[in-house]
Predict the 3D structure of the following.
Amino acid sequence: MMEDEAFEIEDRINKLPKEAKNWNITEALKGKIKIFRDTNPIMEDLSDDAMRPRHWNLLKSELKEDFRERDEDFTLEKLMSLDLISHADNIAELT
């Protein structure tokens, strides 16, 4: 999902009838969109060509996670599960 699409979906949710805005599925979707929008700038930083193996190693240490950023199984879902938002300041310094 691109950031523009996230904004479009969020706008469509905001235009739903009041009762639909309180559905569990609507709340869950709004939460996922917020996480995506907050995480997207961090992911853009991490995709920068300036990221070197030493930077990734520092990131792994910061996150206390071991992953292989070049492997096929390092997907967007895996990246989103790393709770990058909680470490945004340190990641910004790193990148």
The mean pLDDT is 87. Residues 60 and 66 are 6 Å apart (CA to CA).
